[in-house]
């Protein structure tokens, strides 16, 4: 009997009037959902697709898969990424990836920063603005980055989110609060190199080859940040920028430091199965955690520059091996690994 895998996801939608152009940017294209389904089928799984909408709970309760491969971002709300995992726990259905608590904390950049700092993990100095006229902390010095408090995929981070004076800061914070209906996170700008680190596993997570984001390869005049424009407008499959270097060119000392910080962050936040952690170097060349993504993108097209698949390819994974290895890690965590038969597709047993 085949392993029955539910695949939960949110498909990208057309933007309706009144919403910002990047409102659904975290949702997946049909090509990604289909590629994951095909990869699972290659692993011998019987796959049932479940859109993570208001009917998802009833579909999950009725179908009762052996395990769910979850990539759902959630429809709305400050804890939207936690919705499907919370439903699955209520229904006692195993699933891939991190739990509701981890997903809720990681989506909130301020909470993530507080947890990391409390555990001695270097992260950026920041302030949460609930109003555009909130007083700026004296500890924060320009230039600063303005981001939505609880978004991912560079949503709400525009090229002009790097602000260099008080007037620009106030304008950007006001725009962000009005546009995304949430507080703004204002954090110090770190001037060094930027990296993203993929991990797969649980008790002893494996760090994949480190990806450097070459912000100096952005179009002339662009700010040196991985903004919405950099990720989704200027760098496209039809006109890709040479913006990634993987493996990154690092000294052994810096590589080991980045890996140590990544693994410690993974464990402190109780990430599971797979994760991606963004870091940037300060003026002294020391890495700081920018963001933690326990639900990273899995776009199959190499030209789309999806960071975790990019790192996996550098480690010798096929796309099918990446997907089946993530599934295997979850199955092993639940003691269900004997249900998966095609072990040739498992790169990290």
Describe the structure.
This protein is of the alpha+beta class and 349 residues long. It has 3 domains: 3-97 and 332-345, Rossmann fold, CATH 3.40.50.20; 122-188, Dna Ligase, domain 1, CATH 3.30.1490; 194-317, D-amino Acid Aminotransferase, Chain A, domain 1, CATH 3.30.470. The chain contains 10 helices and 13 strands. It has helices at residues 30-42, 56-63, 83-91, 100-107, 109-118, 166-180, 228-233, 252-268, 307-314, 319-333; strands at residues 3-9, 45-51, 67-70, 126-129, 144-148, 162-163, 184-188, 194-201, 206-207, 211-213, 244-245, 273-281, 287-293. The strands form 3 sheets. Strands 8, 9, 10, 11, 12 and 13 form a 6-stranded antiparallel beta sheet that branches. Strands 4-7-5-6 form a 4-stranded antiparallel beta sheet, sandwiched between helices. Strands 2-1-3 form a 3-stranded parallel beta sheet, with helices on both faces. A hairpin with a 4-residue loop joins strand 8 (194-201) and strand 9 (206-207). Helix 1 (30-42) packs across helix 10 and helix 2 (56-63) runs parallel beside helix 3 (83-91). It starts with a strand and ends in a 16-residue tail after the last helix. The mean pLDDT is 95.
């Amino acid at each position: 009997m085949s392993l029955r895998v539910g695949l939960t996801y949110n498909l990208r939608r057309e933007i309706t009037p009144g919403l910002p152009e990047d409102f659904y940017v975290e949702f997946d294209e049909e090509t990604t959902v289909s590629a994951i389904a095909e990869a699972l089928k290659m692993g011998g799984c019987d796959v049932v697709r479940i859109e993570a909408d208001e009917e998802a709970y009833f579909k999950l309760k009725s179908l009762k898969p052996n395990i769910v491969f979850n990539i759902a971002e959630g429809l709305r709300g400050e804890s939207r990424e936690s919705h499907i995992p919370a439903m699955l726990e209520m229904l006692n259905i195993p699933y891939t990836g991190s739990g509701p608590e981890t997903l809720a904390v990681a989506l909130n950049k301020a909470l993530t920063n507080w947890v990391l700092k409390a555990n001695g993990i270097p992260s950026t100095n920041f302030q949460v603005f609930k109003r555009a006229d909130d007083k700026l902390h004296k500890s924060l010095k320009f230039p600063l980055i303005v981001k939505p408090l609880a978004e991912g995929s560079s949503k709400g981070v525009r090229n002009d989110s790097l602000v260099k004076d008080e007037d620009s800061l106030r304008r950007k914070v006001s725009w962000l609060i009005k546009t995304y209906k949430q507080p703004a996170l204002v954090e110090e700008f770190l001037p060094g190199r930027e990296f993203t680190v993929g991990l797969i596993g649980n008790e002893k997570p494996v760090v994949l080859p480190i990806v450097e984001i070459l912000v100096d390869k952005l179009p002339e005049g662009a700010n040196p940040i991985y903004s919405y424009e950099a990720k989704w407008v200027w760098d496209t499959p039809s006109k890709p920028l040479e913006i990634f270097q993987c493996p990154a060119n690092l000294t052994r000392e810096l590589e080991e430091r980045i890996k140590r910080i990544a693994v410690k962050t993974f464990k402190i936040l109780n990430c599971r199965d797979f994760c991606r952690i963004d870091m940037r170097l300060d003026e002294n060349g020391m890495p700081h955690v920018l963001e933690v993504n326990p639900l990273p993108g899995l776009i199959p097209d190499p030209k789309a520059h999806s960071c975790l698949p990019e790192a996996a390819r550098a480690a010798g994974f096929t796309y099918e091996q990446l997907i089946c290895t993530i599934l295997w890690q979850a199955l092993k965590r639940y003691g269900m690994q004997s249900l998966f038969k095609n072990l040739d597709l498992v790169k990290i047993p």
